[in-house]
């Protein structure tokens, strides 16, 4: 094949590259004045929803669909306590919630709200047996369903697993998304840093009350300092003239910076019982007056894991399916994807979520 | 050598090791590029290699016992400072005859204990009522305990704050 001259002549290629760089630079300068406005205009959650239940700071969102649901059992998304749940409904084309709504599921999402200083004594028992239990009761009453499908993301996945173990009859199908279950691994930096020798959680909670949002944010950023403090700004500068990149960047960054504090006692229990003592997989985790046994989970289980997750490494999620008593259990590891990419990434949207919808649909007949 | 100075020396050595390794990786990275690349591409390639090398070095450093020891000391100092400022503010508020955070926490804890006791009692009563309902009228033997759901909060928490929209008629 004959290659045109201007592609092989280095001098011409250099000129072409220089011209391209100049055009890009002009594009960057053009968008610069409107960046702040654009960052402020990011919508937090894009799908149409209504609040159907409120308790203290908790809100239960029901996602509206133009067509009636095709499947009888409602699906409840349970998000973590450390960030806001709109990552699951970040933007059009990248919404996990929308995938399930479009597929015909009657979809709900638990928004825990932002805890205040007065909530510092709320425990995992309050969240799991109290709030989540009440949400489940309410939904069973509202939809006349006897059981619900539950999808838990990250810490919300751990909480969902605990709920399913304590109330196996309430959960029809359980989907975990990048959920930490086995805390004995030392693959992740968070596991190393929260070791009892490195971190005295009792003193920390006694002094600070709630775990400050800034503390969590700093810990997450410091896990990958070069990527977060150097590569990301450079990448942003190089691509800020691209409309689609800007949209994605601001949507993701708005969510990433939107940390919330975690109630002190909940944080203390989560770090001490799970990160430091790994009681969940040992079958000794106390929640209220009960001990959590994961083998009490007998419903079908789907465990979705990101292959390159630095927050919840594979080794933390994979053992879940071996701990449950379910016969119908499946694990999907999406290679080359990180913690957030598992929810909103292009590959996850194209490959993982249609698969997850089909898995749930098959078990809801 | 005393323990603090030994710790300090170890941390210094770990940090020095990080920079020595990083520098050597950076030098390697700086010379791994494709000769056919145009200058902007070349710069990007070198930069990416350098940042990747730096990222790997930092990841190793963040996992090192020396960094964790450093982090522990830093956390302890932060906690001590916070406890000191809490104590100072509490005294200042008490001097002004105003409630401090500790006082509010104590009230909250008392409320929680009260709530827990009431909920526990309600749960026991609820279990007993359930057992009585299931019993045939003639039978007098007590029903087995723990037949209800394993939920500790039989009565919704913050019942006054519950607010829900009724289900829509289909």
Shape of chain A: globular
Low-confidence stretches of chain B: 141-162, 166-170
Shape of chain B: elongated
Order of helices and strands of chain A: HHHEEEHEHEHEHHHHHHHEEEHHEHH
Helix content of chain B: 55-70%
Order of helices and strands of chain B: HHHHE
CATH superfamily of chain A: Alpha/Beta hydrolase fold, catalytic domain
Strand order of the largest sheet of chain A: 1-2-4-3-5-6-9-10
Number of domains of chain A: 1
Largest interface: A-B, 62 and 44 residues
- And the CATH topology of chain A? Rossmann fold
- Give Rg of chain B in angstroms: 32 Å
How much helical structure, as a percent, in the residues of chain A?
A: 40-55%
List keywords for this structure.
A: 365 residues, alpha/beta, Rossmann fold, two-stranded antiparallel sheet, B: 170 residues, mainly alpha, 4 helices, elongated
Explain briefly what this protein structure is.
The complex is a heterodimer of chains A (365) and B (170). Chain A has 365 residues and is α/β, with parallel strands linked by helices.
Question: What this model shows, in words?
Answer:
The complex is a heterodimer of chains A (about 375) and B (about 170). Chain A is an alpha/beta fold and about 375 residues long. Chain A has one domain: Rossmann fold. Chain A contains 17 helices and ten strands. Chain A has an eight-stranded mixed β-sheet with strand order 1-2-4-3-5-6-9-10, with helices on both faces. Chain B is mainly alpha-helical. Chain B has helices spanning about 5-30, 40-65, 65-95, 100-135; one strand at about 165. In chain B, helix 1 packs across helix 3 (about 65-95). The radius of gyration of chain B is 32 Å and the shape is elongated. Chains A and B meet through helix 2, strand 1, helix 5, helix 7 and helix 8 of A and helix 2, helix 3, helix 4 and strand 1 of B.
């Amino acid at each position: 094949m004959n290659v045109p001259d201007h592609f092989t002549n280095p001098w011409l290629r250099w000129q072409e590259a220089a011209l391209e760089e100049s055009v890009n630079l002009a594009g960057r300068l053009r968008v610069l004045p409107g960046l702040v406005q654009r960052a402020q205009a990011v919508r937090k959650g894009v799908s149409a929803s209504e609040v159907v239940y409120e308790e203290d700071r908790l809100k239960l969102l029901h996602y509206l669909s133009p067509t009636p649901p095709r499947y009888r059992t409602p699906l409840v998304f349970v998000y973590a306590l450390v960030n806001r749940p709109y990552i699951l409904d970040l933007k059009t084309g990248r919404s996990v919630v929308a995938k399930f709504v479009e597929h015909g599921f009657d979809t709900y999402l638990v928004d825990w709200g932002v805890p205040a200083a007065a909530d510092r004594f709320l425990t995992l028992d309050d969240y799991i047996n109290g709030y989540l239990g009440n949400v489940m009761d309410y939904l069973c009453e509202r939809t006349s369903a006897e059981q619900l499908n539950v999808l838990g993301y990250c810490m919300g996945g751990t909480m969902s697993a605990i709920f399913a173990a304590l109330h196996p009859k309430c959960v029809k199908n359980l989907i975990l998304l990048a959920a930490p279950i086995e805390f004995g691994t030392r693959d992740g930096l968070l596991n190393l840093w929260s070791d009892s020798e490195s971190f005295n959680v009792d003193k920390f909670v006694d002094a600070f009350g709630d775990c400050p949002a800034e503390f969590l944010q700093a810990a997450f950023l410091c896990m990958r300092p070069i990527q977060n403090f150097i590569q990301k700004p450079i990448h942003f500068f190089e691509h800020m003239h691209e409309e689609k990149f800007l949209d994605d960047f601001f949507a993701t960054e708005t969510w990433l910076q939107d940390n919330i504090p975690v109630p002190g006692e909940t944080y203390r229990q989560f770090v001490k019982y799970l990160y430091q003592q790994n009681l969940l997989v040992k079958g000794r985790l106390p929640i209220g007056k009960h001990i959590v046994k994961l083998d009490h989970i007998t419903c079908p289980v789907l465990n979705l894991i990101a292959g390159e997750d630095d927050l919840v490494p594979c080794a933390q999620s994979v053992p879940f399916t071996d701990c449950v008593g379910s016969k119908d259990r499946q694990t999907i590891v999406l290679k080359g994807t990180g913690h957030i990419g598992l929810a909103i990434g292009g590959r996850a949207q194209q490959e993982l979520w249609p698969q997850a919808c089909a898995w749930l649909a098959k078990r809801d007949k | 050598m005393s323990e603090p100075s030994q710790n300090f020396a170890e941390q210094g050595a770990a940090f020095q090791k990080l920079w020595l390794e990083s520098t050597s990786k950076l030098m390697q990275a700086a010379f791994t590029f494709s000769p056919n690349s145009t200058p902007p591409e070349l710069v990007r390639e070198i930069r990416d290699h350098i940042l990747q090398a730096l990222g790997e070095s930092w990841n190793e450093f963040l996992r090192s016992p020396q960094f964790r020891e450093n982090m522990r000391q830093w956390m302890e100092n932060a906690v001590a400072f916070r406890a000191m400022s809490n104590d100072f503010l509490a005294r200042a508020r008490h001097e002004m005859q105003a409630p401090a955070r500790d006082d509010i926490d104590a009230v909250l804890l008392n409320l929680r204990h009260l709530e827990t006791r009431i909920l526990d009692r309600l749960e026991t009563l609820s279990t007993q009522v359930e057992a009585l309902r299931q019993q045939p009228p003639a039978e007098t033997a007590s029903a087995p305990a723990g037949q209800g759901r394993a939920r500790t909060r039989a009565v919704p928490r913050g019942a006054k704050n519950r607010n829900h929209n009724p289900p829509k008629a289909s």
